[in-house]
Amino acid sequence: MAGKIFINYRRDDSIAVAGRLHDRLAETFGRDNLFMDVDNIPVGIDFEEYLNNQVAQCDVMLSVIGPYWLNAKDETNQRRLDKPDDFVAIEIAAALARSNILVIPVLVDSTHMPKASELPVSLKPFALRNAIQIRNTNFGSDAEQLITKMREALALGKAQQSQDPVMLTYSAHLVATFLLNIGVFLVALMIFFFAQRNYAGSLAAFLAGVPFFSLGELPLTRDQSVRFGLVDRNVRRFGLVISVGGLLAVTAILVSGQFFKVGLFEDPDLQAASVMIFLFFIFTATFFGFGAGQYAKGAASDERMQKVIARAAYSRWFMGLAFLGTMMFVSVGTSTFLYRLTDSTAAVLALVGAQLLVTGLCFVRYRKALAANVAPTP
After folding, report:
1. pLDDT tens, residue by residue, 115-128
2. Are residues 172 and 228 in contact, defined by beta-carbon separation less than 8 angstroms?
3. What is the CATH number of domain 5-157?
């Protein structure tokens, strides 16, 4: 059984390609399973509610984007996408607000995906959707490729649950912030142990820092930051690494007097700091490692929550505070450790300064990831 397919397009931009695509899809999925040209809206009906109901009946939305799609204007020279009564924007926003609808941008010929910065707030997540190209000169094979991918997504007549890209991007970059700041602390430990001629402790700190830096760097790579599968795998790997790392950290503290030649566990303040970091390890492992994807799906299923998340994710001030909050939580524990070891305020200030730089880098890359014109690799 095929799923319902909604073809979204702008008439003065891509009516010819949309019509050819409709006819080709009808051969495979049947005309009864296609929605196109929602024109006959009953008199006196709220057209936005009507369009939302039409979109809600579908499993897949194909949004056909031609060369004039982004900057099409009305008779008053106002961009249509910015108008509250633009059918194209209303339909796409309605599909994005539902996690059970697969939204596929279909790029006509050499058209590029619009960037998030070029779209209204309700459509910004659309910029992170995986796109497929349809060329007029190679329409047959391109349409077949689209049909193949749709068949995979419509197994058993139901579209696969898609994870909200904004939430995943946000989660991935917070993961990077946490991991890299822990890595910076381990570098500080390595330097301290080396200065104390404790080469075993220096080597242990170095080896502990490698997985934190290597895993934390992945979400910051531009061409990987919005790949759903990779981000999801990195988030889950983070859960595993942080769970094991937290347990190893507590074990290391217990045997610190024998192995590292530093009696960390004997200091009450360090005991409290170690417990705080350990609990944060376990909490973040549970959330990011196992619950982030499900949270994204659940949030995306609520239209109001979807709008709140979208607005928050694109707010520089709100997200900046969120990144600083993550950094400060890590800094409290790590700075306490470093100060007890070195008894040096300068060392603590250097650590906090380095962690602030890392946090700023992660935040800047998060902003770029949201605005990046990059489609996930299939």
Report:
1. 888 999 889 889 88
2. no
3. 3.40.50.10140
